[in-house]
Amino acid sequence: MPKFLHSPFRFLLLFSCLAFQSAPAGQQAASLTATNPQESFDSGTKTDYTAGTVSLATGTWTLTDAVLGNTEADRKNGAQSVRLQQNGKLTMEFFVPNGATTVTVQHAIYGSDASSSWELWAQAQSCNCNKWTKVGNTVFTTSSTLQATAFTVNIAGNVKFEIRKTSGGPSRLNIDDFAVTDFGTVQPSIDNDHLALGNPSGAVTDVSYPGNYLMVKPQYKLSYNRDQGKANWVSWHLDASDRGGIDRQDDFREDLTLPEGWYKVLGTSYQSSGFDRGHLCPSADRTSSIENNSATFLMTNMMPQAPQNNQGPWADLENYARTFLPGNEVYIVCGSYGVGGTGSNGGLTNTIDNGRITVPKRTWKVIVILPVGDNDVARVTTTTRVIAVDMPNINTLDQNWGTHRTTVDAIETATGYDLLSALPVEVQTALESKVDAGPVN
């Protein structure tokens, strides 16, 4: 369970103690309960950036390299908000008494400053070690309008939180309306969303992040890497409604929705390379309409794949995932990592298309199978079947996809991504450490 970029979801490693000391262990929250679940930062005064404590409506907080800002350039919902600079921190000096299911934070860039990144960290009183553990992925704040980011926490006991600005530098960051929902609070159902189980790399639709650019399509969602000319990953939901009688369109083409000025990989860009235009979201998963099938032939949904990888175990696993329909629905995320594969031309190849497309070293996929139903995220349990594979991008690999099974943890370690991040931590811990041992056909 890593370790990477931004996303509104994911409590990472259990409370096994990572770093940074905090306040006295026995102190309890004066507020942040079901009847008063939000700190607005509208009370209290702090006008200099030196570290110091301030008494707010919910209790005492420590502001380090931070002030309570109330200028016109401070983005705020009320009278003021927290303004962090450099590597500023905002720390609770009390424990929330009812645990936490989620934490929601409003954030924006200060004035006309550049973007900033920040993280949410948590400390459970049961740890008894005054150590902090990161919650979810790093968040990238790119808007001058307050935006809400929600973190899945699921901590039953007393807990406190800290926000850390991680980007350093002179750009300032506003934080407002820190809200906690009590542990056990039922969250709204998220069904059939292509990223219902989490955003693996915290991709954002912002040209400032060309290596992790989020693209949202009705048929799938993906993180695109401009400099590699391919997706980092593609994620999608599959059920019986996605399947129909539409023929394969075979209309490989550039994706015109990429930002202006970015190179757009052409349908002919793989020609004579020795590598297939390998689908991430497969054509056969989208046969309900011409439009849906055609969308799978956009080159942003392709990776250079050794023919015996793409047409062998990769295709067999795609077919196997569809055998779970119609009684089940399936969440799938897949991608590639590393540099250098061996295609039909022989020899290691690092790039094609005059260096504009990176040939990956490995291809990976994670499949989560659920009976058809509602509130999908809540229905994933420690016994849900999860298939994870990691295959070499070569033309001589074992053709039985089952031999390439691995753990989600291993894929996370290899890629730096944070998979299944929307699931409760105890479910992630159980599922991500297992190698699937189920049937392969």
Describe the model.
By secondary structure, this protein is mainly beta. It is built from five helices and 23 strands. The two termini are 29 Å apart.
Order of helices and strands: EEEEEEEEEEEEEEEHEHEEEEEEHEHH
Report the total helices: 5
Total beta-strand segments: 23
Task: Specify the helix fraction band.
Answer: under 10%
Shape: globular
Low-confidence stretches: 2-31
Structural class: mainly beta
How widely separated are the two ends? 29 Å
Q: What is the CA-atom radius of gyration, in angstroms? A: 23 Å
Strand content is 25-35%
Note the main sheet.
11 strands, antiparallel
In round numbers, the mean pLDDT is 89
SSE arrangement:
Blueprint: E1 7-11, E2 38-39, E3 52-56, E4 59-69, E5 81-92, E6 100-109, E7 116-124, E8 133-141, E9 147-155, E10 159-165, E11 173-181, E12 213-216, E13 221-225, E14 230-238, E15 276-279, H1 290-295, E16 302-305, H2 307-322, E17 328-337, E18 341-342, E19 348-349, E20 351-352, E21 357-358, E22 362-371, H3 376-379, E23 385-392, H4 408-415, H5 425-432
Antiparallel strand pairs: 1-8, 2-11, 3-4, 4-5, 5-10, 5-11, 6-9, 6-11, 7-8, 7-10, 12-13, 13-14, 14-17, 15-16, 17-22, 18-19, 20-21, 22-23
